[in-house]
Structures are given as structure tokens and as C-alpha cells.
L-asparaginase (Sphaerotilus hippei), 323 residues
Amino acid sequence: MTRISDSSARRVVILGTGGTIAGTSARAGDNVGYVAAQLQVDDLVAAIPGLASLSRRGVDLQVEQVAQVDSKDMSHAVWRRLTAAAERHLKDPQVCGVVVTHGTDTLEETGYLLQRVLSPLKPLVLTAAMRPADALQADGPQNLLDAVTVALQPQVQGVLAVLNGVVWAAAEVRKVHPYRLDAFSAGDAGPLAFIEEGQLRPLRPWPQGLPLGAAVLDPEIWPEVQLVSSHAGADGRIVDLLCEAGVQGLVVGCTGNGTVHHELFAALLRAQSRGVAVLRALRSGSGCILPGSAHDALPHAASLTPAQARVELLLRLLAARRR
Ligand code: ASP
């Protein structure tokens, strides 16, 4: 994918997918019982004076409603549509960056998918909100303005998440709090940059990588990859049942340094020997699995969350189909 071939490009495309950022409440000030994905993305844009002033200064803002979902209900079909739309716009030399409005619940999964599939040389910026659009403390407008500001920066690349004044690598970020406005973390990796009063303050290099390409998502039917978790009292029955049902991949949320209850571990080894792809991921939300334990007989997903590891395994299985 080329970067900006027209150096005067000042177009940012905003793709709407729903989420709390587009949510409204029946009762004023209800930050819990609101309904996500109610407002159209063009209404969100129209409500932010800072975006109107960018337009007056020559920034061409275009919007497209790709989906309208609470991101807890994110589907593979929406992922395919969103990835195709993002790829199409990023290829346009007139476009300097793309912004995606999203829910916070599965932002870490969508972000990971977009980075692995597109690895863009332009900014592809996810943003979201912890409060609905009509809340007293609505965080969506500032987050969306910050995301567009980041998408306009010619030196920035990769899939990013901009929330609460912090720029994260979307493939590293994870939601760590159900309520606070500072609900995200990247574990040990930390933020990539801060965005303060419209000024970007970078801390480390922008994400890079070899893109798999959006065509990897083309198959109508995707491999089945399920998540299981190790815990006190775990046994292998769930794994055996999933294998009987024809699962192709299993991610296990692990305790400690990627450890698994011995009964579950035995079932996962059986699954692996039957050709099911297995990946270990940390249950704890930060840190990185260190090699050297007896559990190394099952591969691990380093610092990915279990939900991101599921995306990784899904993409590996999809990519293997193309070879
Ligand atoms: N359930 C909402 C969603 O993920 C939560 C949010 O956006 O904050 O769409």
C-alpha cells in the first residue's frame, strides 16, 4: 500500500460501526442502562465544533456508516466489510488517514485484526467512548476529534487506538476497566503517544508489519476457533466436546506463566495431536509468557490477550487455506 502520493492530501475518512460513542440513554445521565449504536456517524461528526473548524481549514472529512452494532455483538461479517472499506480508502492517494468509530468491548480484537491484515503505511485510527453521546461527561467528541487529528499526521502509520488522550498500538491495547474513562492499557508495552490539545507527543515507533491483505478474509465460512480457560476445578471435557464438534482452533486462557490445569492440558495435547491448532494466552491482562516450562508443548501467544490470540489463530488458519 502506498503512502500519500499527493502530498497535499487532507482527506480523512471516518467509518462508523456503532458502539457507546454512538449510544444514547432513555434517562438523562444513565451511564449504564443506555443503548449503544443509536446515532449515525455523520451526526457524531456534525456535533463536534472542532471538526467543523478543521473542515474550514481545508480538511476534507468524509463519513461512511459501515455497520451499527454494539461491539459486544461484533461479527466476522462486519470485520470483513470494515477491513475492505478501510483498505479501499487507505489506497486512495487523496486520503491521508482513516478513523473508525467502534465500541470499546471488542476494540482490542478489531484493532489486532486490522493491524495483522492491513499493516497500513498511513494511520488507521480506532476510537470509542466509555460514555454515551448524551452523557454529562461524554468522552466521544474529544476522542473523535483527537483521532482525526492523529489521522492527519503525515509521519504516523499503523493501526492505532486513540482514547482519553492516549494513542495506543491497536494490536497491543486491551480494555481493563468496565467504567472509568481511562479504561485501556497495553500492559507492559505502554502507550505509543499522547495527544494533548491537538498536539501529538510520540514516545516510541509507530506499528509496522507485513500485511496479510484483506483477501485473507474472503472465505464465506471461517475456521472455528474457540476460547477455553484454565481455572480451579477445570477438566478436559469441554475440549473433547469441541473437538467432537469439529473445532479447528483452540485458545486457552492460562494461569501463571502460561500454565494450564493438568487435566485440561492433557485434553489440549490430545486435541493438538488430532490436528487442532492450539495457542496459549495469558488470562491476567499483562505480561508476556516466558518459554522454558513444561507447557511449551503447546505454542503460546506471547503478550496477546486470549481474545487477540483467538484472532491471531483465526488469521493463521485463514492464511493457511490460501497456501
Ligand atoms: N458495549 C459497548 C460496545 O462495545 C461498550 C462501549 O462502546 O463502550 O459497543
Summary: Confidence is low (pLDDT under 50) at residues 1-6.
